[in-house]
Amino acid sequence: MASLQMDIGAETRDARTEEVDLKKEKPYLGQDEGPSNKEADDVTDDVHDVLEFPTEEERLTLRRISDKIPWPAYLIAIVEMAERFSYYGSVVLFTNFIQQPLPDGSNTGAGGPNGQSGALGKGLQTASGVTTFYQFWAYITPILGGYLADTYWGRFNTICVAIGVAFVGHVILILSAIPSVIVHPNNAMGAFVIGMLITGLGTGLFKSNISTLIAEQYRRRKLFVVTTKKGERVIVDPAYTVSRMYMYFYLVINVGALIGRVTMTYAEKYVGFYLSFTLPTAIFLICPLVMLIGRKHYNHTPPNGSVVTTAFRLWIYASRGRWSWNPWRTYKNMRADDFWESAKPSKQQNRPGWMTFDDQWVDEVRRGIKACGVFVWYPIYWLSYNQLNNNLTSQAATLTVHGLPNDVLSNLDPFALIILIPLFDAFLYPTLKRIHINFSALKRITAGFATGSAAMIWAAVVQHYIYKTSPCGNEANSLGCDGVSPITVWVQTGSYVLIAISEIFASITGLEYAFTKAPKNMRSLVMAIYLFTNAFGAALSEAFLPLLEDPLLTWNYGSVAIISAFGGIVFWLSVRKLDVQEDHLNNLAEGHMVVTPASNKEDLEKV
């Protein structure tokens, strides 16, 4: 964490974080300098007072840097690190727990130095099906978490509820793995599925709000100009600040994931699954403790009522007279330049009573819907990323592991991220800036599709040579196969590093895009919609289950590579015009709305 603070501070040497002279500017409005949380919503624009805003020429020519990051964000990062330790420390065990049989003479599932850990013996297809469903479940429940936070409970309270629910799920997972239960596969499977469902619900409620809460600790949203100690005028860009917050937020996630995965796989191999499920539960208890410690210091955004209903009614109102029996004409009408303009309150002669918002809020809703349109393509990206969770673990079991647990290799992904994120932040992105290459959010996402495809090509080639060198030939993954390929398991490194790079480009940028493009009172929901795309990716993965058997695994990886590459091309073609508007969308004025009880209760059928 010390190195993390050095990287994020305003005094680092790279171009994005060069120290700026703020003596003539108003300092960052933190919790100690600004109003109470109850008053924060009323004075949001105070954080922009006295700042100098760039001219159009300066906006196009001046170098851009990051602002300082408020310290409460670090507390929230600790909560996320503990939660990800518990999540990944458990999930990394699921494939072996379900797929592999209980070792002879074991009542804990431990395989020992030379054996394969396992418990239920259900095979690769069942293991992939159950773990993929778990991923689907964990990424569909954020929709509920986002709605509850934005509408009723607020982000802080929703996170606290999520922690309680997930803790109960973790306890049930422990029960499914205790020696007296694990020796009865059907009983263990029943308890395991119940624990998995409850844990997934808690995870979903948590994920849609924690990443939004951390970015909300930084409140500036407008570009402003400052002078560095070297006398250079530069632009402090809030979008870059949020981008860096998510970069290091993701780094902290992977620190937790790496520690959880490594320690739990060894606990599984040498002690048993009951210990591997118990330790993440113990670490998880850090979450409520840190949330309690920091509760008075966080910048809270209170719930604002059913703004989703209002946004939907706004869309229906804007679409009046634009429907046609010709689908192409309807599509063109819905994408017309005046679609949202015609629905702004200032354009209405007889303004409906439910229009309790201003023109700027309409622009924010438009921006949020455009962001959701970008997310439509993400399931194709997740299809390649999801191979990391179970298929590459199973592939490792058919290679020479040199005494390592087969599921420990998956830790190459978080390990690579921990190394690459600071390198990208300190060198790659600033270098691209200096040579005037605008590696925008949508370009980064496109690059994520490409590197995800490259990772699958690597995996397909490895699988091809496994079939050529395994003593079982094209039946290398069969439970009856007594040998493994002589190829070292470290050959998988290329797949994991490429997947890690794709995460930096696509996954981290997706978090950034969801936060910066969502209306203030819909941030958790838009973040949940982004996370929900992972559920669709998991559903797509289910369609590939018939390929998850010998000798078709090479086709599995190859077809995913082709789909990801094609998806990246189509994605860029669909968003390239939106990419030109990036600066404009990031710097829209913040809108305002008032949600009245009457507007909450009105039936949509009356629109």
UniProtKB/TrEMBL annotation:
Predominant cellular place of this UniProt entry's protein: membrane
A GO term for molecular function: dipeptide transmembrane transporter activity
Biased amino acid composition, Basic and acidic residues: 10-27
InterPro entries: MFS_trans_sf, POT_fam, PTR2_symporter_CS
Annotated region (Disordered), positions in chain: 1-43
Domain of life of the native organism: Eukaryota
GO cellular component: plasma membrane
Keywords: Membrane, Transmembrane, Transmembrane helix, Transport
Localization per Swiss-Prot or TrEMBL: Membrane
Residue intervals passing through the bilayer: 159-182, 188-206, 248-267, 273-293, 368-385, 414-432, 444-467, 487-515, 527-548, 554-575
Membrane topology: Multi-pass membrane protein
Family the UniProt entry places it in: Belongs to the major facilitator superfamily. Proton-dependent oligopeptide transporter (POT/PTR) (TC 2.A.17) family.
Protein name: Peptide transporter PTR2A
